[in-house]
Structure formats: C-alpha cells, structure tokens
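Listing S7. Sequence submitted for prediction.
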Amino acid sequence: MKILSLKLCGFNSFADETVFQLDQTYNDFVLYGESEKQLKIFQSILGVLFGFTSEEKDSFRDHGGKSKVFTGLITIDLDNRTLLIERDFETDIVASILMSDKKSKPVFQGKDFVDQDDNRAYIHMIRSIFHITDKQVIYDICTSIFEKDALTLSSLVEILELLLGQKLKITYYKRLSHSANSIYESLFENEDTNNREHSALITRGAREQSNHLKQTIEKLNAEIRVFEEIGDKIKRKIEPRVGLLPMDNAQDFKDEVLLWKKLRKNKIDCDQKLKLIRDRRRYLQNLIRNELFIYKKLPDSFEQDIKEYALLTTKLEQEKENFYNLRSRLHENKILTSTLRRRRNVVTIVVTPLVFLLSYFVLGPNWLFIIPETILSFLIIIFYFGHKIYTLKAQYYQEDADYQITQKNIKELEEQRKAIAENAPLVEDIEFSEIHIERFKKYKSVKNEMMRLIQSAEKLEHILSNKMYKDKLPELIRKYASFVDIERDDLETYLDEFLHHNKNLEDLKYLKESKGYAEIDRLKSIYEMIKEGFVSLLDKYDVQLSAEGSDEFSELKMRTSYSG
C-alpha cells in the first residue's frame, strides 16, 4: 500500500486547491514547511480517510472566504490498483472508486456523519480494505513514536501506510505461501536421480526458491521488528509513569486512580473542615466560659423578659406615684370633711339664734314668721354644709376605690416582676439592660453556631465512617501508591496519555496476533521444509557430484551450511 497524493481545497492553511505528491522523495522541511504544518497535512489525510467531527471541521475550515468549497481527495495505490477517496466536508458526502488497468468500479457513495454514531456504512466499507479504522488510535500511534520537533510528513505517512496496509500484505503472503507450496511440489514430482542435468536444475530451482523465501522471511521479520519498535517506544513512555504495574484494563486503572484522588481530596477536605470546626468550637467554648457564662442559664425569652421587666417597672413606678397621690388626697379629704362638720356645727349654733333674734326685733312677736324663718335658716345651713360634705364623701369613696385598685395593681406588678426576676435574674439590672441584651444576643449566636458546628462535625464524621473511606481508600493507596504520584497537577492528563498509549499497545498487540503473523510462521515452516528437501536432495547426489568436483555443488553446500 502506498499513499500517492493528497488534494486539499478550502482548508485554513490551503484555501486554494493544493496537491501534495506524497510518493515523491523530497526533503519534508523544504517541501512542506515547519513541523506543525506537516502535522496539519497529516491530520488532513486522516480527515479525508475517516472524516472530521464538527469541532475539527471548524478548526480546519478556511473562514477567510477565499474558497467556497471544503473538500479533500486522496489517491492510494493498493497492489497495482488505485483507490480514490473524495470527501466533501460541507455536505459530508464521500465518494470512493477502485481503479485498475482494465476497469474501475465505485465502492462507496453516500453521506458519512462522523458525529452520528459508530454504525457508519462508510467505515464498514473501509474496514474491508484497511486493518485499523480508528482515527484517534492511528493518530496516537503515529505521533507518539516521534518527538514533536522530529515529526516529518514522510515519517508519519510511512507509519500510516504500515498500519493500514496489513490486510493487503496478509493477502500477498497467502498467495506467496501457496505459490511456494506449488513450486516445491512441482520441483520434486518428477525427480530423476540418474540425470545430472535434471538434478542440477532441480537444485538450482530449490536454491532460488529458498533464497526467495529467505528474503521474504527477512522482510517480514523486519516488519515485525518495526511493530515491536513502535510498541517499545510507546511502552517506554508508559513504564516510567506506572512502573511495571500489571493492569489488564487501563480504563479500570484510570478510574480507580481518579477515585483514589477524589476520595483522598474529600478526606483531606473533611479532615481540614473537622479541624477548623474543632478549633472553632474550642474558641467558642472559651468565649462562653470566660465572657458569657452568666447568660448560660438565662431562658431564650430573656430579651423579651428584660423589656417586659422594664415596662413593668415603669408601670409600677407610675402606680406607686398614683398610690401616694391618692393616699394624700384621701387624707386631705378627711381633714376637709372634718373641718366642714365643725364649721357646720359652729354656723348652726351661731346663725340660727341670730336669725331668731333679728326676726324677733324686726317682726316683733310674730311667731308665725319668726319660727319659719329660723327653721329655714337652719335648713339652709344644714343643706349647704351637707352638700359640701356629701361631695367630699363621694370624692373620698371614689378615690378610696381607686386607692384600693392601685394598691392591688402594685401588688400584681410586683409579683409579675418577681416571677420574671426569678426566671431571669439579670432583668433587675435595668441600668445595663441594653448591654445585657447585646451580650445575650451574642451568647445565643454563639450557642446556635455551636449547634451548627456539632451537626456539621457529625455529618463529616458520618461521611468519613463510610466504607469508601475506611476500606476502599486504604486499599487504593496500597495498590497504587508506589506507581502513581497522586499529588501531581497533571494527573488526569497523565492518565489520559497512559490510556491512549495502552490502547495503542493493545492495537499493536492485536496486529501482532493477527493472521499476518500466522502466515509468517507458515512461511518459515515452508522454508524449513524446502531446505530439508534440498539437503535431502544434495545427500542423494553427494557422492556423484563430489566425484565430479562440481563448483556448483561446493557453492550450494556452503550456502546450505551457512543458512543452517
């Protein structure tokens, strides 16, 4: 298999139609430019063969508007036949034609959606031609065996041709094996031991065929060594990273190491959080012990209690003031009432006789007028002072009732204050009530924080008591600690590289165990069989040929001894 040419159009590096003759031997740097550009051309080859994803299309497409098409055409020589694959990246249409000297036939024409799924008709077709069809695997193998600054297009294409062309070579080796068997059988069918010329002809034919097979086997061994070198180069990139870890499943290895990293990180985070929680709890406990201890036994309603106590105190003072005022007024009322009674008695004793005497002097002994006037004056005095005394008494009774009520209110207020003070002693310190309220709020905040810290600590301890941290994490540490530096910053990238390299090794291993290597062993067996027949033939004519001193015999025997 040989990739002959590549034609690109609409690519960002090759907007105009550009043709690369890959079968010609030129200096890669002179012909195709710097290493990165050559890698772009190689990726374009893979894109034409196996397609681009949407992201890759956007990356390789020319967005400058120089070209309205975005296509690629690759020409491949397949054992005297030519395979043309043309891909339109805009429409995802692929056309493939297989041509020979006599005829040409289309092998595929249709759409090939790379992003759709793995069930792609084009890939099924191409598998009948190429041994590997996983674009990423091919890219990883081809690029992993060279240093970045040593990448050349010819070296990449050479490895690509080697990877893709195995099916064709297997077919070729099968034909060669069958031909070798046929030639071997034809050489010894009509063997005439008495005919020296015939024997020499057979000897020459056997020698030529054995030499041809020997060259073929050496060529196959060289190809085997190339694969082994590729595998060794990739393996050398893996082994320094993971030592000699026997890992049957690289994906399991990656998953378990990432699980180890995750569990380790979570455990470290939990331990750090627990330490912070414990330090914070100790600080808060010291704060309560040293500054807020007096608020520890206070009820949660202390803030409301102290406000209520202050309000009750204000009401009590008002009630007491009212009480003292009422008591003073009652006393004054008693004095005033007593004074009015004395005045009534005095006025009655003085005014009534005086009215009688005046009436007698004015009216004479007219008793019909004197007695009524005297009685009237007496009644007026009695009524006047009686009204005054009655008013004072009514006022007295009202104030006395208020006095009793006030006294009762004072008692109730004092009992309420006493009950609050018994439940929350600090309420009596009214002068510093605002300070107490603020400090009590601080105590409640500290207490709530303590509860949250306890709950958080319990959750973290519950997490750490899980089997994943108690059993699985120590198991992973024992299993991988000597192979992987879990603290490296590029751990995931490192594991991805390991996974890719491991996958490449698996693909190479698959190649090594394929039919091509079985055919190699078969060819070696045929060669041994031909050589044995040839030695047997020489033994038959040993005496006769040595008697004649045949140079051909001597040369042939030397070759046989050397190959043996």
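Caption to Listing S7: primary sequence and predicted structure tokens for the chain studied. The mean pLDDT is 77. The two ends are 33 Å apart (CA to CA).
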